[in-house]
Amino acid sequence: MRISENMMTNSILKSINSSKSRMNNIQKQLSSGKKIFESSDDPFAFAKSARFKSIMEKNDQYLRSVNMSLGFVESTQMHLEDINNIIQDAKEKATQAADESLNEENRLAIAKEISGLLIQLKSIANGNFDGDYLFNGNNVNEMPYELEINPEDSEDIFGINFMPNSSEVEEITKKFGEHLDIQINISGGDIDKINDVFNSLLSLKTGLESNDTVLISQNIDTLNDNSTEILKLSTKIGDIYNRITLTEQQLTLTNMNLASYISSLEDVDMAEAVLKYNSEEMAYKAALQSTGNIMTTSLLDYIR
């Protein structure tokens, strides 16, 4: 078979174009740092990388939920600690008022202080995080507690309205994984433990106003019980916080590992790519030189 000049030229030009295409592809890899741009580059690696990215996207959604939930849970715990501080203050005042050396006027003065504590307690129990009330179950848009105040005396508290009870306060559950749901709020019978604190303060105030030392003493024991229950709630919320924090760490670590896997699949080896580029460049230049030599061949060259 006779190889014509046209065949040789076409073959060399084809080689030049292929070499140029490979050089351009390597340049693209070097500039982007990636070696896979579409499925045809490496079908197996492309599919695996896409699956890993899908998992990371889901984990990122869970992490956003984790961040919001951690704020809600942490705020709940802080408010429970504040409630316990109110109980301790009330217990101290009750112990003082139980002293037989105090008279009726002294106890009325302490009753005013208890009214102040009730106002503080209402503010704490109506606490919210990012606009969501902490102690009204999944009804996060409605303020749970409202005091009944004597219209003739703004410091005289005689009752409480709209107190949520265990049948009204439902749990708030957040999804932090494919098969992981965690309750982040206080619900059910636990909410009654906060209600009991209001009732104890109101009962103590009644005892102080009626100068009833027996009732005052009884409320000291009741406040002790209230404190114990609130501390239990705080511990329960603390456990929830720890679970969510551990979940956050696991999701973050998983995403870091997945990112590393994706990098190993997609990222180009710079040193190897540079060597390939230099090799292709040499081949390209050699092809150009060969083409130049052929193009300068004339009829006279064959006559000689």
Report on the architecture of this protein.
This protein has 304 residues and is mainly alpha-helical. The protein has a domain at 51-260: f41 fragment of flagellin, N-terminal domain. It contains seven helices and six strands. It has helices at residues 5-32, 43-97, 104-125, 191-209, 213-266, 270-295, 299-303, and strands at residues 128-129, 132-133, 146-149, 157-161, 173-177, 180-183. Helix 4 (191-209) runs antiparallel to helix 5. It is rod-shaped and about 120 Å long. The model has no long low-confidence stretch (mean pLDDT 81).
Task: Give a short synopsis of this structure.
It contains seven helices and six strands; from the N terminus they run αααββββββαααα. 69% of the residues lie in helices and 7% in strands.
Major sheet description: 2 strands, antiparallel
The number of helical segments is 7
Measured between the Cα atoms of the first and last residue, the distance is 24 Å
Low confidence ranges: none
CATH superfamily of the domain at 51-260: f41 fragment of flagellin, N-terminal domain
Helical residue percent band: 55-70%
Oligomer: single chain
Mean pLDDT: 81
Percent of residues in beta strands: 5-15%
Spell the H/E element sequence.
Answer: HHHEEEEEEHHHH
Structural class: mainly alpha
Spatial sequence of strands, sheet with the most strands: 1-2
- Structural Rg: 38 Å
